[in-house]
Amino acid sequence: MKVLFVGLFLLMMSVQSSYAQQNNTNTSSVNNTPEQQEIINISKQKWDWMAEKNVNSLDALFDEKSVFVHMGGSWGKSQELNVIRSGGIWYRKADIHSVSVNIIDNTAILLNNITLLAVVGGNEVTNPFIVTEVYVKENGKWKLGSLSFTKQLTPDDMKH
User: Fold this and answer.
1) What are phi and psi of 91, to 5 degrees?
2) d(CA 82, CA 42)
3) What residues form DSSP beta bridges with 62?
4) Residues 100 and 127 sit within 8 Å (Cβ to Cβ)
5) C-alpha to C-alpha distance for 144 and 135, rounded to whole angstroms
6) Which element (helix H / strand E) includes 101?
7) Contact at 8 Å (CB) between 84 and 120?
8) Which residues 6+ apart lie within 8 Å of 48 measured at CB?
9) How does the average pLDDT of the chain come out, rounded?
10) What pLDDT, on a 0 to 100 scale, did the predictor assign at position 30?
11) In a 3-state reduction of DSSP, which class is residue 32?
């Protein structure tokens, strides 16, 4: 009986591990063009800079005409940088579950499926988002033109 329980436990763990591996995004260059991989790398670096509140690097990445869409509103580059600098929103950690990139001429559209741990107005919150990032290539360099957060519904959200 004990052997049966151990066997079932190991079987369940291997199935769970296999499922997790299938759902873990492969952001390596295996399935991406070099240009797509470049956008993925820029996006990952952006999340790090946001977590570190590195507004100098973000200032260089964000286009002057960039727009940011959040659950509570939308605004431009200077307000986004001020929100990050002040800690109004502290993007502590973005767990990226999947990522895709489509490139159309000099425009790249990146979709991230993430769980975001943030501090908003002093309160720690975790939300599942689909994040749309639009990059435009100008003078051989990618600039962020738009960053939009769309909250995903969870089973708990559907109960209300």
Assistant:
1) -80, 85
2) 21
3) 144
4) no
5) 4
6) strand 89-104
7) no
8) 54
9) 84
10) 60
11) coil
Contacts of 145 (CB under 8 A, 6+ apart): 63, 65, 66, 67, 107, 134, 135, 136
Residue 25 tokens read as 């995004």
Which of 102, 96, 119 is CA-nearest to residue 43?
Answer: 96
Q: How many CB atoms lie within 10 A of CB 108?
A: 24
Q: How confident is the model at residue 132 (pLDDT cuts 50, 70, 90)?
A: very high
Tokens matching residue 55 = 């507004």
For the segment 77-103, what is each residue's pLDDT rounded down to a tens digit? 999 999 999 999 999 999 999 999 999
Residue 159 pLDDT > 80: no
Count how many residues are written for the chain: 160
pLDDT of residue 160: 67
Cα–Cα distance, 133 to 144 (Å, whole number): 7
Q: Does domain 32-159 have CATH number 3.10.450.50?
A: yes
Question: In this model, does residue 68 exceed pLDDT 60?
Answer: yes
**What's the pTM?**
0.78
Q: According to the model, what pLDDT value does residue 31 have?
A: 86
Nearest in space to 143 (alpha carbons), one of 44, 75, 42, 27: 42
Amino acid sitting at position 40: I
- Burial label, 115 (beta-carbon count in 10 A; 0-12, 13-18, 19+): middle
The residue behind tokens 């738009």 is: 146
